[in-house]
């Protein structure tokens, strides 16, 4: 996607917006930035991008879209907001950062993780496993670093682990991760999405473009996810803390079992995990699914799981 000379409107100066401004500048775009906060309230943020030429429209919701070629929106801006409706009416494409990143990334090694709960822990743990396996790994998304800030210097062999919220997935169209994980789904952010059905549609965009070369890791204990099988074109890897699966990753007599219908092996005891609780056990099993899809050796997976201390609580979407 060639953005050189294109006029791009960046909506919101949070992590995503700042990341977008920095990368768009390196890609030669003409940048317009809008935020409903005042310049005084954005003082520290603006310092980080003060050397980048841009047009600022601050403390202003009445945005002129004439000449705008593309809109990059903050994930928190709802799809029914006036500016998004206005852009769609004018046939201006609206994207979130993960969609734009996918279009300009030099690598296909994208792992995307979503779910109502467990995204952050699963994202961090997956990144740790990949690094231990020797991959040059970028952990991005809601975990503190915008994906667009990392892509410009990325190499084809780099791996991106993306924590993807429903807000980010809403405005994707061709985004296609090599491996996707959905931890679980329960009604959340219905004021933003309008309904649970819309929330699910956003979440399920994570696998909608996948094909037979890709992998989707799903929580078998979540009935909504279990019932997705007929809608999925990629290879499903199930995990469960409740059921002994015919194929997948599960727990039996306090041991994590990996069964691919050819071999059944004990990976490790759950007592060796430092992260406690059923929810963290689910997170660990999901990350094992990702690691197996990446072809990572069992010893590396076990070593990382034994040493992983977890992350501080984060709000997840």
Explain how this protein is built.
Helix content is 31%, strand content 21%. The chain is of the alpha/beta class and 317 residues long. The chain has two domains: 7-95, NAD(P)-binding Rossmann-like Domain (Rossmann fold); 107-307, UDP-N-acetylmuramoyl-L-alanine:D-glutamate ligase, CATH 3.40.1190.10.
Describe the SSE topology.
Layout: E1 7-11, H1 15-26, E2 30-35, H2 43-47, E3 55-58, E4 70-73, H3 82-89, E5 93-95, H4 97-104, E6 110-114, H5 119-132, E7 137-141, H6 148-151, E8 159-163, H7 166-170, E9 179-182, H8 190-193, H9 196-204, E10 215-219, H10 223-226, E11 235-240, E12 248-252, E13 255-259, E14 264-269, H11 278-293, H12 298-307
Entry keywords:
317 residues, nine-stranded mixed beta sheet, UDP-N-acetylmuramoyl-L-alanine:D-glutamate ligase, elongated, single chain, 31% helix
Averaging pLDDT over every residue, what do you get?
92
Q: Which structural category do the helix and sheet elements fall into? A: alpha/beta
The biggest beta sheet is recorded as: 9 strands, mixed
Q: Helical stretch count? A: 12
Q: In angstroms, what is the radius of gyration?
A: 20 Å
- Count all strands and give the number: 14
Major β-sheet strand ordering: 7-8-6-9-10-11-12-13-14
Q: Provide the CATH architecture of the largest domain.
A: 3-Layer(aba) Sandwich
- In percent terms, what proportion of residues is strand? 15-25%
The global form is: elongated
Q: Would you give the CATH topology of the largest domain?
A: UDP-N-acetylmuramoyl-L-alanine:D-glutamate ligase
Low-pLDDT stretches are none
How would you spell out the order of helices and strands?
A: EHEHEEHEHEHEHEHEHHEHEEEEHH
């Amino acid at each position: 996607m060639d953005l050189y000379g294109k006029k791009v409107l960046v909506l919101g100066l949070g992590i995503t917006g700042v990341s977008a401004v920095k990368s768009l500048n390196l890609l030669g775009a003409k940048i317009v930035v809008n935020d409903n906060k005042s310049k005084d309230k954005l003082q520290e943020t603006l310092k980080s991008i003060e050397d980048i030429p841009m047009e600022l429209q601050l403390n202003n919701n009445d945005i002129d879209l004439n000449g705008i070629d593309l809109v990059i929106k903050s994930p928190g801006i709802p799809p029914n907001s006036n500016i998004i409706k206005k852009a769609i009416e004018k046939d201006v494409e609206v994207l979130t950062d993960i969609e734009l990143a996918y279009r300009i990334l030099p690598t296909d090694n994208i792992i995307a993780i979503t779910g109502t709960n467990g995204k952050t822990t699963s994202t961090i743990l997956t990144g740790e496993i990949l690094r231990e396996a020797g991959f040059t790994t970028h952990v991005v998304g809601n975990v503190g670093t915008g994906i667009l800030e990392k892509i410009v210097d990325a190499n084809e062999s780099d791996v991106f682990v993306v924590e993807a919220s429903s807000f980010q997935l809403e405005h994707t169209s061709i985004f296609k991760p090599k491996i996707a994980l959905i931890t679980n789904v329960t009604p959340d952010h219905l004021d933003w999405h309008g309904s649970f059905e819309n929330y699910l549609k956003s979440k399920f965009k994570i696998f909608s473009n996948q094909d037979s070369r890709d992998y989707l890791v799903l929580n078998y204990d979540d009935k909504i996810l279990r019932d997705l099988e007929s809608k999925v074109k990629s290879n499903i890897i199930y995990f469960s803390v409740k059921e002994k699966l015919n194929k997948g990753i599960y727990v039996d007599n306090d041991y994590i079992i990996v069964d691919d219908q050819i071999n059944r092996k004990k990976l490790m005891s759950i007592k060796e995990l430092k992260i406690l609780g059923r929810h963290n056990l689910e997170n660990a099993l999901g990350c094992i699914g990702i690691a197996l899809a990446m072809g990572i050796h069992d010893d590396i997976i076990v070593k990382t799981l034994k040493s992983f201390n977890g992350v501080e609580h984060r709000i997840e979407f």
